[in-house]
Amino acid sequence: MLAQSNSILNLVKENLAQSQSAIISLLNGPCKSYSQEKKALYAKHKIGSTVRFSFFETVAESLIKYNGRQISDELKKNFLEKENLHSDILFTILNPDTPEIGRKYFLEEFVKFLDIENRFDCTKDFGIIVVIKEQPTGKIAWTDNDGQQREKEGYIDLLIKNDEQAIIIENKINYAPDMDNQLVRYMKYVDEELGIKTYTVVYLTLIDDKEKKPPLEFDKGFKKYKEMLNDKKTGILKELYAVDGEKSLANNLLPKLCERLQEEQERSQSQNVKESCDIARVYINQYKILLEHLGGKAYMSSVDKKLIEEIYSSQDKFDAANDFVKFWGNRNEPLREVMEERFRKTFPDKKLQWLEINGSKEYSWPSKFEDAKVYWNGERQVGFVALEGKKFSKARQDELFKVIEKIQKKEGDMVKREDIWVYCDIKDNSTLFDDILNGLKILFAV
Length: 446
Description:
This protein is an alpha+beta fold. The chain is built from 13 helices and eleven strands. The protein has helices at 2-44, 55-66, 73-80, 83-94, 104-114, 182-193, 223-230, 249-267, 271-311, 315-329, 332-346, 394-405, 432-445; strands spanning 130-143, 149-161, 165-172, 198-205, 237-241, 354-357, 360-366, 372-376, 381-386, 414-417, 421-425. The strands form two sheets. Strands 6-7-8-9-11-10 form a six-stranded antiparallel beta sheet, with helices on one face. A five-stranded mixed beta sheet has the order 1-2-3-4-5, with helices on both faces. A hairpin with a 3-residue loop joins strand 10 (414-417) and strand 11. Helix 1 (2-44) runs antiparallel to helix 9 and helix 2 (55-66) packs across helix 3 (73-80). It starts with a helix and ends with a helix.
């Protein structure tokens, strides 16, 4: 019977060791790589930065509230990735007639940026240049979710044209699916309906994503335009990215427009012009920040998918991920036990004893202040607590607060004061054990 019990015990130990080994392997491998990529992307694109906010994101929250809905990341994402939003913003920037913001040289810089000066010349007199949002191109057939054939109006997202040249912009920043024959239909409309033979098709996506490339296969009726679109020598098709890539709106074009605004402002003696330049520069910079945030999150999505694929690639990794999630969600008890062991080694003369103070159980010790004790809540909080039934005066709070501020070392550490508590919530991080012990050293040394 004893041999059988030992055998079962050994089997349990072996399984636990294997499970722990699988978890550590997952953490040291895919999870570590995931964390490093995430940190780099968040830093590069300023995701989560309170300093680098965009007023477009603030507007999104206001509209969500106005419509009586709770703000969520999903609703904000839906609003900020709307095709119409980005078409509206680009129209505002590229249209020379936009009050306060529009500049003719914005369009000139856009043409240079696309490297199509031979296909759209802003300097020659080819008639008035117009920028049109949602240019109708006629009825198109489509199939709804129920499989029913329907008709609806087709639109070019943005059309820039003069009498002889055109730029067709197809906006896919929101990852909208491509309609049947979409690009070649637009080409045919510009060619046959508008009579413009020199044109460029710009396919605009959020990032350089291999899963979102311009379609190059079309119905037989569009053979002429398909061949033109596929012929790289013509330079008709231009892939454009909002963020990153070799050339992008956020990295190249928008900063260049701001440079030109700065030059205009420095040359002008008019206060109205200077103020107009400020307005335009703020608008463009805010759009740049929005694109950086959206682009960073799009890249993060690909990193998320890579980790998911890795975890689901084997049962061992799948089990290790689940085991770790369960362990991490219940880590407070083993965390406290490790902290207690380290506390005893660091402060051998201090006893660890739970005491109830002002309705809460804490580890506590006398301090040099006659009306306060040093305390640790067994987790991430250290500070001073008033004696049972007492409250700190404002002067005492100020005095204790100055001591507690010495503990605050990292972004995320929160120093707080109340009538009976003055304390620091230490951010959970890899140096937590040292942070707690160093915090207590400061409190004990006062």
